[in-house]
Structure formats: C-alpha cells, structure tokens
Amino acid sequence: MTGADSGFLFTFFNAEVARQYWPVIASGALMTVGVGLAVVVTGTLLGLLLALARALGSRLLTLPIIAFADIMRSLPPLVVLIVLYFGLPALGLPLSAFAVTWLSLSLVLAAYAEESIWAGISAVPRGQLEAARSTGMRWWQAMRLVVLPQALRRALPPLTNRVISITKNTALGSVVALNEILNNAQGASSHSGNPTPLMMAAFAYLVVFLPLVVFSRWLEQHWQQR
Amino acid sequence: MDSLTQNFFNLEVYAAVLPHLLAGLWTTIWLSALVIPLGAAAGLLLALGLTQSRRRWLRWTIIAYIDFFRAFPPLVLLILVYFGGPFLGLELGKVTAVALAFVLNNASYYAEVFRAGLQGVAKGQMEAARCTGLTQLQAIRLVLIPQAVRNVFPDLVGNGIEIVKLTSIASVVAMPELMRAARDAQSLVYNPSPVMLAALMYLALLWPLTRWLGRLEQRRARR
Amino acid sequence: MPILEISGLQKSYGDNVVLRGVDLEVNAGELVCVIGPSGSGKSTMLRCCNLLETPTGGTILANGHQVTSALVDINRLRQDVGMVFQQFNLYPHLNALDNVALALRNVQRRTKAEAQSLAREALEQVGLGAKAQAFPGELSGGQQQRVGIARAVALKPKVILFDEPTSALDPELVEDVLNVMRDLRGRGMTMLVVTHEMAFAHAAADRVVFMDGGVVVEQGTAAEMFEHPREPRTQSFLARYGSRLT
After folding, report:
1. Do B186 and A86 touch (CB under 8 A)?
2. Of B12, C42, C134, C229, which residue has the fewest beta carbons closer than 10 angstroms?
C-alpha cells in the first residue's frame, strides 16, 4: 500500500476515531429512526384523515385541504422547518428541535399522503360505493370495508416512495441542532478533526434506509401482479 | 395578530431584504436549470441500460446505484462531496460539488421514472419497429423513448419540482441560493420575516407548477 | 425459385417443442393461407421467417438469402419480408402518414418529401388516403390494421407475413381488411397468411396449409383442402369450422 492509500484510509476510515465515536453515531441513529417513525405514523394518519374529509365532498372542507396539500408540496421541507423553528417561538410556542422537526416533516408527509390516498379513492369506480350503500351500509362502513381497501392498494407504491423520501429529511434536523446522525457526526468530526465520523454517518444512513428502499422495490413488483 | 405581522409579515423588512432574496432566487433558478437536464439525461441512460441490456451484471450494478442513492439523504451526500472532496485530492469548485451531489442523487430518481416509462411501452411497438428494418438503436430512439417520455411526463415534471425544492439544502454549505440569502438576511435583521418572504417566493414559483402537475396527472389518468 | 422456402424448421422453448420440422414453400405472387388449431405453431413458424423468433433447427430461405445463417443482415431481411400484426402495433405518438413513413425515412434513407409521398401512395392503396393526418387513437380497428398493412407495403417487400390480421377486429370491420388483402393479392404481392377466416382462405388463397402439433399435416389448393381433405386431422378440424364456410 502506498503512502497515499494509507492516508486515505487513515483519514476516512480511521479505526481509532471510529471506536471512540460509534456510540455517538449509534445514538444519532436511534434519534433518526425515532423521528422517522413518529413522522410516518402522524403523517400518514393525518393524510388519511384529510383524504377522508375530502371524500365527504363538502366544499368547505375540500378547498382548505387542497390549499394545504398544494402549499406543503410546493415548499422545500427545509423552509417549512426553518419557518416553524424561528416562527413558533415568536408566537409564544417554543418547541424542541425534536418536536419542530417531527411537526414539519409530518405536515409535509400528510400533504403527499393525502394526495396519494385521494388519488386512490378517486380511482375506485363510483359503482363500488353505490353497491355497498345499496346493501344498507352507512357511508363510513362502505368507505372502510369497500372503498379504502381498494384505494390503499393503489396508493401504496407511490406512498412508500414518498415516505422514504421524507423520512430521509430527518437529516435536515441537523440544521436546527437535532441530535440525529448527521448532527452528531458533524460534531464528532470537528471534535476529532477527522472526517471518519461522517463516513460512519453515511454507513448508518444506509443501514437505516437501504432496507426500506429494497423493500419498496419488492413491494412495487409484487403489487403489480395483483 | 400584531406579533404575527411584526415577526412574519414585516413589510419594512421585506422591502429591505428583497434585493438580497431576489439574487438568491436567481441562484436557485440557474442551479435547478443546470441540475435538471443533467440528472434527467443521466437517469435516461441508466434506465436504458437497465431495461435494454442483456447483461445481468450491468442491470444489477444500475439497480445498486439507484437504490444506494435513493437511500442516501441528499444533505449527507452534499456534505460528503463538498467537504470530503479536498481530502481525496479533488479540487471541486463550490458549484461543481453542489451540482455533482445533486445530479448523483437525482439521476437515481429519474432512472426510476424512465424505467417505469420504458417498461410501460407495449412490447409490440419495438417488434413492429424492428420488423420494418429499423435497427435496435433507431427503434429505441424513434419509437420507444418518445412513448416512454409521453407516458411519464407528469412524473418528470414532478421530479423537476423536487429538484427546485432540493436546492434549498445547498444553503447548508453556504451556496448563495434563496434559503441562504433568507437566513443571512434574518441574522442581520433579527427577525424571521426574511425566511417567511423566502417561503412566499418559493410558493410563488412552485405552486403554479404544482397545479400544472396536478392537471397533467389528471389528463394522464383519463387516457 | 420460391420467394420463401422453409425446410425442416424446428423451434423449442427449453423443453417445450413447438415446431417439429415444418416444410413449406411460397412462390412469387402466391397467397398461401395457414390454418390450424391454437398451439399448432402457425404463428411461431411465421415469426421465425423474419426472425422475431430464432429457429432452433432447420433452414429458411427468403428471396435467396439464408435467414437462419448467423451472418444474416436482419434489418436488410426485414425490408424484404414484411409483417402485419394481430394487434396492429401502430405507433400511437405518430399520425398515420408518419407511421408509414418512419422506416422509409430512417431505414431506406429517403428524403422527407419522398418518404411522405410514398407513404401517401401506400395509404391510398389501402383506401385511407384521407386519413393521413389521423392518429391511431382516432381510427377504428379496421382502419388501424389497414394502416399497418400500408406500413408493410410501403417498403416494397418481396413477401408479407400476416399474423392473424383480423382476429382482433370486430366482425363488421373484418371485411374491409380482407378486401385490402384481396386487392394486394391482385397486384401480385406474395403473401403468407395465418388466419381463422376460412371463407377468405377458401375463396382467395392459391394454396392452403393445415398445421397441427408443430408440423404441416396437409397442403394443397384451396379447393382440394376444403372440399376433399385427405388427412383425418384435417377433416376433423374443418368439420368443426364447417359452419364458417357459408
């Protein structure tokens, strides 16, 4: 091995630095996964509620929902995060880095989830709901037992991609000092004067997200066969 | 209410920082205009390799590339390319590093979009084209790609919109695009209004595009 | 010399043997119809002639060229051996004129003006001169198939292969396409047609070939085949389709 090669390894894959800082990276990973899960749960639930509200057909509800979905899909998530981070304290609502990251990403995911689920609901032929209602089912029953299963099946592949995309944005939490992977890695890097923690961060992100991506690819292939 | 106006919609502050933000907006626009065609072209090549090649190793390599960059957060990629480059002896300019990170990331999404488009074209199309004597390359160029692009055009637009939004993370490496301009201005005036103004500018730029995208998607659903 | 000479043609997909040695000749100007039950290998045989499928045995000579040779120039071959598909396979992003002109421009390297004029001629020949600017989505199934025929004819091939050209059409549109095929025959085109249209085969074909189980069971003139079939398999097949002869 030439001097340059060992220099590269020493710089980017320094075993000593890795040993020292892996707990920090690991705790960052826990935070990333934690925020990610929280965002997925609240984001998709909120999106589902909004899509159902839209399915009710009342203009009073539909217009604000469309506006919300459009705005949240037109703004970069970083902008939403920053606006809430600086804006909420000014309104007397100071939130922790965790809370504000979770809130902004949830709102963004909810907008995309609403659009995907609504597209799925719209694609189910009207006759399905009519048939269900004509056997005496109430609206909500018909939705739950007949329309939603079909709608969600259609919505799932694009939704999975969106979920992955948005949960990767937990890395943005580093901008508001959330102790997730990137933030911790950056701190460790400057502390040790060595970029190895950044490589560890890259590895940690892959460990968290690559399985999700592979799963979504599998899901897409198997869903098509229905 | 008054606090809201004072902090978010402070017109005096808006007026003061507007020139600064407009310069940032311009950077956002040309950065997007640089990255979108490069990412799309790279994605198309990857998708063609993926769908047309008979070599398993090539297909698997392309899939690995796509999944890798779909799993990797763009912000982390940007930081690695931007700060890690010099360690590898690569003297990348700021713009080159940012553009490289964005294209690497985005080509994978474009590759997925084009893959779906190419696979969605009926098999009989290529057969018919080849049966009139067109070479494989000609058939791909004249019959396969035009139809693939037509089928996934809304997704291509959607991806373009995502790239414009993505440019905001370049603010983290001090690229003077819109978000950076807003945060710099904010630290100067000690008021969150510039960030709000930047949000409004993003909306002004992207909301109409998002609406147009919605119409494109509806038109496709009806076909 | 026959335009198309198939000798001992074999085709298997792994363990699945579809063609077990097919012998067939098509002479210049002939219209040969191939009939037979599903799974007899008729379409596979046809698709071997222009190398949409690769034979696993036997030889095919088209216009004197060895189709089955490893050195064959596929694209040159396909200008001599045209094809019309069951599903038409028109290019939806191009109008009728451009559908026909595409290969004229890009394969035969003609100028735009030349290509369009030849394409217009071909469209007129199939009775669709007025629909040159229409897109496939705006045409009926029968019209689309006729554009498909124009697309094959425009290249002035030596022989055209028809793979069940009317099977995907509504019954009332079938006659239009068959008329175009009769007209083509009248102009001297050599045609090899896989079809279920027995009345057409009986009336228009010079020779009829019956295939079953991957081989040619019997062949002869249309009159011989339909009125005096010799082989029991031919007889039972035609008996099932007897009602179609009226």
Report:
1. yes
2. B12
